[in-house]
Amino acid sequence: MADKVLMKGNEAIAEAAIIAGCRHYFGYPITPQTEIAAYMAKKMPKIGGTFLQAESEIAAINMVYGVASAGRRVMTSSSSPGISLKSEGLSYLAGADLPALVVNVQRGGPGLGGIQPSQSDYFQATRGGGHGDYRMIVLAPSSVQEMAELTVKGFELADKYRMTSMILADGTMGQMMEPVSLDLEVAPAPEKPWATTGTKMKRKHNIINSLFLTPDELERYNFERYDRYKKIEESEALYEEYLTDDAEICIAAFGIASRVSRNAIDEARKIGIKVGMIRPVTLWPFPSAPFKKALKTVKTFISVELSMGQMIEDVRLSTDCKVPVILCNRVGGVIPSPDEVFECIKNAAENGGVE
Amino acid sequence: MRELKRLTLLCGHYGSGKTNIAVNIAAELKKQGGNVAIADLDIVNPYFRAKDSVEEFKKLGIRLICSEYANTNLDIPALPQEMYAVTDDRTLKVVLDIGGDDRGALVLGRLAPAITAENDYEMLMVVNCFRPLTRDAESTIEVMREIETAGKIKFTGLVNNSNLGAETTEADVLSSVSYAENVSELSGLPIFMTTVEKSLFERLSPKIENLFPLDLQRYIFTPQGDNQ
Fold it and tell me: Which of residues 6-25 of B touch A (CB under 8 A)?
C-alpha cells in the first residue's frame, strides 16, 4: 500500500499539528475550515489532548493565550470573519511574547462575505489586524502537502521566536484533496523557562503580561521585539522560483493563485514568452531578495491575487518601483482561470507592462 | 454495472467519493432507460455538490433534486423542497447522495420509514482506505455503525472507492482489495462494486469483479484548470 493518504487541506493541518506535538485546540466552527475542528474533535480525546469548541472565536483565542503561557504547543483556526474577532487576542499574544499557531482559511469578504476562496486578508495577516506594533510569521501553503509541512514549521518558528505563526490558506487549499505523506520531521520543542508552570518553590515566579507601568519599559520591549523581527527578516524568508533565470516577465503569486499561474506560465512559454514566477512561501517576512535579484532581467512584474491588490504593495516595495507591477486579480470568491492569467502575461509581453 | 433497485443510497465518511459515484451511477442508469433522478441530500458540505454536473444532467435528461442553495454562499443545512418525490414517485429510479458521516446521515431518518416499507433499495457504504480516518477495516466499521444509527437504515453493500486522487495507480487499487474484503468479512456485507477513474478501468477490469468506471467529475479533487 502507498505510504500516502488522501486528505483535505484542512485535515492535513490538523494531523500535522498533532504530529508537531500540539495537544490543545480551541476553535469555533466556520466554513471553509470546519474540518480542522471536526478532525481535532475526533482525534484529541483519543490521544489525551484537549479539543474544545469555545463559545466564540474571542474565547478560543484567549484559551490559546492560556495554554501558550503554560509553554505548550497550542492552536486555533478560523476563517476571515472569525480571524477579525480573534484580532484583539493576536495583539495580546504579541504583547506577551507567546508562541502559538493560528490558521486562517480565507473566504471572500469584507463582512460576512461568502464561503468561496479569497486572499484578501493579506494586509490583515502581514500588517497586523490587531492593534500595536507587532508582526506574525505568515506562511502561505500552495498544496495539501505544504499545508502539513508549514504547520510543523509554524510551530517551530513560533517557539523559536516566541511569537504567533499564522497559516494563511484559502478555501480551495482547505477543501481540496491531494495525496499527502505524513512522514514529517519535527524538531523537539525548546525549553521554555519563561512559562508559568509552577515554581515548585524553586524559582522566582514567572509573569505573562502585556501591560507595562512606565512608557520607558513598554518602549524597551517594543525595541527588543523589533530586533527579533529584524533577525527573522534576515534569516527566515522562504520562497520558490519557477523559470526566473531568463524571465522578462515575472509573476508574483502565493497559494492557489500560484498554481493557476504556473499553468499559465507553461502555456506562455510555449509561444516563446520569457515568463517566470516568484512564489512567496512566507508572506511575512516577505522574500524581497529574489525580487531585487530578478530586476536584472525582469521588465514587468504581475501580481496575481485573489484580492483587490494587497501583496502588490510588497512587490513594489521590494523592487523600489523600478519597473511596472501589474495586478491580475479576481475577488469575491472567484479564482482567476489560467486563461485569464495567460492573457495578462500576453498583454504585458506586447505592451511592456503599460496598463 | 450490477442491476440496481429503485433507490440507491450512497453514504460514507466525508471525502470518500459519494457524490462522484452518485453522479456516475445516475448517468449509467439513464443509459438503461426510464426516469432517473439524482437527489442531493447533503446537509454537511457546501462544496463539491452533485449540482456541479448540472449541465451534464440536463443533456442526459436526469432530474436533479437539490436545494436551491447548493453551491451558493448561503451556508445552511438546507434540504430540497422536492425531497419527498424520492419516496412518493415510484416511477422514478433515484440515486441518493447523502452527506458525510453520521451528521449527514441524520437526513435519512425522515425518509427511512418509507424507504424500508417499500423495500426496493440498496444502502451502500462508500469506502476509501487511503482516507486517514478509515485506513483499516475496524475504523471503517466504526464510521459505518455511526451512520446506520443516525440514518436508521442498515447497509446492504459496500462500494470500494479506494484512491489517491490524481496520483492513483493500478497497484494502489489492487492493494485496496484485501482491505475491502476485510470490511466485507467483518460487516457481513457484499462488495457491491469497486470504482476506479476511467483511465484505469480497462487494465483493472479483468482483475477485479464488478468494476465500475468513473467518468463525470473526475477532476473534483483539485481546482479548475489545475493539472499538477
Answer: 14-15
pLDDT tens-digit series, residues A249-288: 999 999 999 999 999 999 999 999 999 999 999 999 999 9
Domains of chain A: residue spans and CATH: 4-235 (3.40.50.970), 240-351 (3.40.50.920)
Burial of A173 (0-12, 13-18, 19+ CB in 10 A): buried
The one-letter amino acid code at B50 reads A
Phi, psi dihedral angles at B86 (to 5 degrees) = -55, -45
Instruction: State the ipTM, two decimals.
Output: 0.91
pLDDT tens digits, one per residue of B134-165: 999 999 999 999 999 999 999 999 999 999 99
Task: Find the CB nearest B15 among A108, A177, A262.
Answer: A177
Check B131 against A335: CB less than 8 A apart. Answer: no
pTM of the model: 0.95
**Residues B78 and B43 sit within 8 Å (Cβ to Cβ):** yes
Q: What phi-psi label fits residue B188: left (phi over 0), alpha (psi between -120 and 50 degrees) or beta? A: left
B83 lies in which domain range? Answer: 7-214
Which residues have a Cβ under 8 Å from the Cβ of B76 and sit 6 or more positions away?
B69
CATH number at residue B95: 3.40.50.300
Contact A260 B225 (CB under 8 A): yes
